[in-house]
């Protein structure tokens, strides 16, 4: 079926008002949960074919997120969609004021390949929970997961409600010509700009979940063992192909040597090797070649080996690195960790302030002044103090970028709001209204209005 035809059918279906029914939404969310649970193995196999991601990582970083999202909305849908009463000011008496969350209509979700299930299904689930019809376009780069999602969803959902459209740049370009009620895009800043421009043509609102270079700072007041263990995990998880992975590391010089040793120790302990089932491959040769170019032989502190046939790059630490080095010019999005030393914490914050606002930032310290300066001075999407990546795991926190790292956010309540319009309604009684706003005007009426307003 032609995609334009499917979108037209979704728009017509939305107008039947069926998706506004909470029972309808819950029924399909439950159905989706059953489909995922009953086909878990198929999902694991597809992602393993795409880039060797283990069952453990797929469950902890993808499937569990998606199931949690469904359960969150099933549990909270009644309260999220209920009109919220707010205070009515004096000039609007006698009346009541309410905010009615309403679905937007037919929305488009464009996913990225690095967490192909989570980044496609989580926004899609939020869209359905909020009562929309949805077209999902997963990333073609993770081809097997794209096909698995399209089969499971298109075989089980009516296309006029939910449809997965397979395809790459041509198909996305075709979709971007269609007028949607919202576009939710996850991917690179470069493509985010293309999406934003196309959306502007139709005045379509967007959420853009983009990337950037996310710093991690380790000061001499950090618990170094904990910091090293958590950074190694968060950086090399998914072979560094994580939008919120610490991109580069800034370590206070007095503890730098000691800290580098700890990083080495944990990489070895975690057994992130080419033949290890738990270490993910690089998604394709294009990205592999790009990453290998960033490994400067004279800067390798640890690792640096790679195997093009297996699309494997060892966890690699580059040190000492300068701000001018190639590896510091673009988001790395792979298992290469540049480490730089610093002597003055405030100067480091000032340097980061000069760069594009990152999607995430991390600080390891026990010093409360440093925590305060980090939180109040830097602007970034979200982050952690004394951990990395895990802020994503709390659905009560909004997830999204700021500036070059994105527009808007989602997860939990924020996902529901991202796909809702907050319709304001003031209801008045038909009695008890003073005459002062109606002509003919007078000084006396104006003086009353001044008092009331
Ligand atoms: P990408 O921008 O190449 O692709 C994302 C989507 O856009 C895909 O579905 C693709 O088909 C489509 N696309 C690609 N080129 C296009 C074009 N010219 N015109 C129209 N559509 C096009 O991103 P990616 O490689 O899948 O993901 C990597 C990037 O995404 C990184 O920068 C990463 O930081 C970012 N990312 C951000 C988040 C987040 O939640 N903020 C999550 C994951 C990845």
UniProtKB/TrEMBL annotation:
Keyword flag Oxidoreductase: yes
Superkingdom field: Bacteria
Pfam families in the cross-refs: Aldedh
Aldehyde dehydrogenase domain span: 2-425
Record keywords, A-Z: Oxidoreductase
Catalytic machinery residues: 209
PANTHER family: ALDEHYDE DEHYDROGENASE, ALDEHYDE DEHYDROGENASE TYPE III, ISOFORM Q
Similarity comment text for this entry: Belongs to the aldehyde dehydrogenase family.
Protein name: Aldehyde dehydrogenase
Species name: Chryseobacterium kwangjuense
């Amino acid at each position: 079926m032609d995609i334009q035809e499917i979108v037209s059918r979704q728009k017509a279906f939305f107008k039947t008002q069926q998706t506004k029914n909470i029972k309808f939404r819950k029924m399909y969310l439950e159905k989706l949960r059953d489909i995922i649970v009953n086909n878990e193995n198929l999902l694991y196999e597809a992602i393993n074919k795409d880039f060797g991601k283990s069952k453990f990582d797929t469950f902890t970083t993808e499937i569990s997120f998606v199931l949690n999202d469904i359960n969150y909305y099933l549990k909270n849908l009644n309260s999220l969609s209920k009109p919220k009463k707010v205070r009515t000011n004096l000039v609007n008496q006698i009346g009541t004021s309410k905010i009615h969350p309403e679905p937007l209509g037919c929305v488009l979700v464009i996913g990225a390949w690095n967490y192909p299930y989570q980044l496609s299904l989580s926004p899609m689930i939020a869209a359905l929970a909020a009562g929309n019809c949805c077209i999902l376009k997963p990333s073609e780069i993770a081809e097997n997961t794209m096909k698995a999602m399209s089969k499971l969803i298109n075989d089980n959902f009516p296309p006029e409600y939910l449809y997965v459209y397979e395809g790459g740049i041509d198909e996305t370009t075709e979709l971007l010509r269609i007028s949607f009620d919202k576009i939710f895009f996850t991917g690179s800043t470069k493509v985010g700009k293309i999406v934003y421009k196309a959306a502007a043509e139709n005045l379509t609102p967007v959420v853009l979940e983009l990337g950037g270079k996310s710093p991690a700072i380790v000061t001499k007041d950090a618990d170094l063992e904990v910091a090293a263990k958590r950074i190694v995990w968060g950086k090399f998880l998914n072979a560094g192909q994580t939008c919120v992975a610490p991109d580069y590391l800034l370590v206070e010089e007095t503890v730098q040597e000691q800290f580098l040793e700890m990083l080495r120790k944990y990489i070895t302990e975690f057994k992130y090797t080419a033949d290890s089932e738990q270490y993910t491959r690089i998604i394709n040769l294009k990205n592999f070649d790009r990453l290998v170019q960033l490994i400067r032989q004279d800067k390798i502190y640890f690792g640096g080996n790679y195997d093009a046939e297996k699309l494997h790059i060892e966890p690699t630490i580059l040190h000492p690195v300068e701000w001018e080095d190639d590896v510091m010019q673009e988001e790395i999005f792979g298992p290469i960790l540049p480490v730089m030393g610093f002597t003055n914490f405030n100067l480091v914050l000032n340097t980061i302030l000069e760069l594009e606002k990152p999607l995430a930032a991390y600080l390891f310290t026990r010093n409360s002044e440093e925590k305060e300066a980090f939180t109040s001075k830097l602007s970034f999407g979200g982050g952690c103090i004394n951990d990395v990546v895990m802020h994503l795991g709390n659905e009560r926190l909004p997830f999204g970028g700021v500036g070059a790292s994105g527009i808007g956010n989602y997860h939990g309540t924020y996902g529901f709001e991202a796909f809702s319009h907050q319709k304001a309604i003031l209801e008045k009684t038909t009695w008890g209204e003073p005459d002062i706003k109606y002509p003919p005007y007078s000084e006396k009426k104006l003086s009353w209005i001044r008092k009331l307003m």
